[in-house]
């Protein structure tokens, strides 16, 4: 699924990385606990979260994730935006809640992935 | 690569916001060495979880990474409180992290299990009141 589609489906605003919206993501993970995210394996994935701190960006960077969507209209801090720009990660924010945002992406074909055993 | 390449980092225990900087740097270094993306990801995640653990539980510590022909070795050393029951600490979901850390997205009891998950070899040497040394290897 292209990131432009994610933006449209979630009625999201792009915070940074607009130039990368034509890239594809192949899976998604929704969590506010970063260690749960770190147990998840798949590159070119999108992270949906309601957590706002710099470790969210660092976690995505470690996982080679390409996009983070902040749910419940959360906004990343200027420091987080700078970190995301350095790593080339697209940041979006949506008013939708986590359950709804994940459900919308899932029913449109963006599925999750296995936990690494 | 006939001799090991060694990298040393001091992990600051006072600043949770900056935790993970050593792992970010190692990721860059391994990329420059042409190591495969999957291996780099495994090393980065294992080390990142270790760094976060050192900041949460031990007031920081030191991280040493060696790259040999056969593996990447991560040595994490701290002088924190030590781990009283390693078997219990390795169980997914077991955590002694304070609520303040959970509100920051960590302390879900997944740190040590994730470190084991992403490494090919892991050893924990810990003494209560003295500190912990963790050795992890990811094969190349």
How is the topology of this model organized?
The complex is a heterodimer of chains A (117) and B (140).
Chain A: H1 3-9, E1 13-16, E2 27-30, H2 34-38, E3 45-49, H3 54-62, E4 67-70, H4 78-87, E5 90-93, H5 98-107
Parallel strand pairs in A: 2-3, 3-4, 4-5
Antiparallel strand pairs in A: 1-5
Helix pairs in contact in A: 3-4
Chain B: E1 5-12, H1 21-32, H2 37-58, E2 60-67, E3 71-78, H3 86-89, H4 99-102, H5 111-118, E4 121-127, E5 131-139
Antiparallel strand pairs in B: 1-2, 2-3, 3-5, 4-5
Helix pairs in contact in B: 1-2, 2-5
> Helices and strands of chain A: which structural class?
alpha/beta
Could you give a short account of the major beta sheet of chain A? 5 strands, mixed
Euclidean distance between termini CA atoms of chain A: 26 Å
Distance between the termini of chain B: 12 Å
Radius of gyration of chain B: 14 Å
Architecture of chain A, according to CATH?
Answer: 3-Layer(aba) Sandwich
The backbone outline of chain B, from C-alpha atoms, is globular
For the structure shown, list the relevant keywords.
heterodimer, A: 117 residues, alpha/beta, Udp-n-acetylmuramoylalanyl-d-glutamate--2,6- Diaminopimelate Ligase, Chain: A, domain 1, five-stranded mixed sheet, 5 helices, 5 strands, B: 140 residues, alpha+beta, Heat Shock Protein 90, five-stranded antiparallel sheet, 36% helix
């Amino acid at each position: 699924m292209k990131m432009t589609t994610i933006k449209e489906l979630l009625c999201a605003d792009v915070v940074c990385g607009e130039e990368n919206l034509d890239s594809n993501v192949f899976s998604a993970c929704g969590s506010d606990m970063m260690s749960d995210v770190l147990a998840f394996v798949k590159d070119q994935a999108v992270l949906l979260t309601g957590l706002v701190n710099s470790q969210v960006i660092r976690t995505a960077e470690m996982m080679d994730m390409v996009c983070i969507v902040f749910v419940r209209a959360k906004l990343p801090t200027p420091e987080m935006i700078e970190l995301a720009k350095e790593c080339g990660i697209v940041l979006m924010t949506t008013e939708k809640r986590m359950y709804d945002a994940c459900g919308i992406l899932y029913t449109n074909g963006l599925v999750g992935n296995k936990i690494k055993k | 690569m006939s001799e090991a390449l060694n990298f040393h980092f001091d992990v600051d225990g006072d600043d949770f916001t900056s935790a993970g900087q050593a792992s970010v740097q190692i990721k860059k270094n391994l990329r420059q060495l042409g190591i495969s993306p999957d291996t780099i990801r495994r090393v980065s995640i294992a080390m990142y979880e270790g760094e976060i653990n050192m900041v949460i539980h031990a007031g920081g510590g030191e991280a040493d990474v060696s790259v040999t022909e056969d593996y990447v070795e991560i040595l994490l050393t701290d002088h924190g409180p030590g781990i009283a029951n390693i078997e219990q600490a390795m169980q997914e979901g077991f955590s002694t992290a304070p609520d303040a850390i959970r509100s920051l997205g960590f302390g879900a009891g997944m740190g040590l299990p994730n470190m084991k998950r992403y490494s090919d070899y892991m050893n924990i040497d810990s003494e209560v009141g003295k500190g912990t040394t963790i050795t992890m290897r990811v094969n190349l």
